[in-house]
Every structure is written in structure tokens, then in C-alpha cells.
Amino acid sequence: MQNLSNHISIAVRSLFSGVMDLIYPPICLCCEQRLEEYEKELCTSCLSNFKLLGKTHSKFSVPGEIYLDTAWALFDFDEAFQNLIHHLKYSRRRKSVGVVLDHYQKAIYEQLSHQTFDLVLSIPLHPRKLRERGYNQVDDVSNWLGKLLNAELGSHLVTRIKYTRSQTQLNAAERSENVAKAFKVSDPSKIENRQILLVDDVLTTGATANALAAVLREAGAGRIDLLTLSTPKF
Ligand SMILES: [Zn+2]
Fold it and tell me: Which of 11, 33, 128, 152 has its CA 20 to 30 A from that of 179?
């Protein structure tokens, strides 16, 4: 009987999703063409058009001391990728970034595998911001990287204690000032001597990540690197 009701529930669910697909056929996030059954979020052609950069750089436009060892940006900041990041922040279709990461998994692993990481940390949102958005848009990327690199997730070890105003209109010095003393480490013993990978969606000046790196360094962290999905800086 249990088995039969399971079968019925599976049949009803797949009928429902079939009907939904007829009413709202799944379309590619980039080109808006109808997706094939085997495609998820993006069509094969758009998926293979993202450009993986894999460049490290250390030219931060942050005044004062730099606490980050290196920063990576994974993908070219072209129109298609900017669209993807917009969806990551503001829509229900945020899972598309995971589809892109899976597609480029081998190449991403090759870029990162020469280094050991103990902890992967999303740049935390202030609790108020987290409530407004409902999720930290970077957490999915951090989870994905944690699995890829066999590293622990450490996002719970840091908190954002200062509600900072939006950074978009600020210059580099104002950004640094805005995020100074914005973060707190909850348990320094879990940070001490660890190799840490910070994760963010977009690298602009690096001021936010550097402010977080400063408190991690104070807590005794070893290397601190930053990985972002993309950056308009190249
Ligand atoms: Zn497409």
C-alpha cells in the first residue's frame, strides 16, 4: 500500500512538473531559447561560452595594509556572466551558477589544487541584510568549493557586526572606511594557523575582503586567499 501511494505521488509530481513545463517552458537564462530536456538553467551553447580566466592578481586598490595573499577571479566579467551574477543575487534562478561551476569543475580544480585550503569562508552578510535577502548568495559557491577542495566550511566562524551602507557609489578610500571593523571572529582557536579561502561574488576594490582578512590575521590565520566568481578589473 505504502509502495502504491509512493508511485501515485511520484506520478502526480511528474505530471504536475510536466504541465508546468507546458505552461512555462524552461528557457535558457542567457539567450532565452527553450531548453532541451537534458539541459538545466542554461543551454549547452551559452554554457560553453563563459570564459574561465584563472588569473591571480594582487593589485588591490585598497589604501593601507593588505592582508590578502592573492585574489582569483574565475570568469570573465562579460555581459552573460554579469547576468548570471544578477540572478544569483536577486532571483529564484540562482542555481544557475552551480550549473556553470559544475561544467567547469575540472579546470577550476586544476587552478586551485596546487594549494591546500583548510577552511572556505563566504564573506558574511550582516544579519539584517541576510533577513532582507533571505540567503547569502555566496554560500552555494562556498559549499561547492568546500566539496571540491575537501575543505571545511568556516562561514559560521565570522560575523558581520556593522551594517554597512551600499558600496556601489563609494571610492576606494570610502569603501575601506565603510567596512573597517565590520567583522568579528567568534572562535579564534578555529582560525589559528589555518589556510583560508575567502569567497565572494564580485571583486571590485577588495576592501570588504581585506577588512575580513585583517580580523582573521589578528586571530592567527595562516594564508588568506580570496576567490571571486568574477571581477570588472581586468
Ligand atoms: Zn542559451
Answer: 152
49 C-alpha to ligand 1 centroid (Å): 9
**Gap between the Cα atoms of 209 and 162, Å rounded:** 14
Q: What is the pLDDT of residue 1?
A: 58
User: Ligand 1 centre from 23 Cα, in Å?
Assistant: 20
- Grid cell at residue 154: 568556516
First to last CA, the chain: 61
pLDDT at 219: 95
Q: What is the mean pLDDT of each run of 10 residues along the chain (234 residues)?
A: 74 73 81 93 95 74 85 91 89 87 95 92 90 90 96 93 76 76 91 96 88 95 94 76
The label of the residue with cell 551600499 reads 166
Q: For residue 157, with 0-12 CB atoms within 10 Å meaning exposed, 13-18 middle and 19 or more buried, which class applies? A: buried
- For residue 47, how far is its CA from the centre of ligand 1 (angstroms)? 7
Per-residue confidence (pLDDT) for residue 18, from 0 to 100: 67
Please report where in the chains the cell 576594490 appears, as a residue. 205
pLDDT of 58: 62
CA of 109 from ligand 1 middle (Å) equals 25
Please name the amino acid found at residue 168.
T
Pick left, alpha or beta for residue 41 (phi over 0 → left; psi -120 to 50 → alpha; otherwise beta). left
Predicted pLDDT at 59: 64
In the numeric block, the cell 593588505 is attached to 66
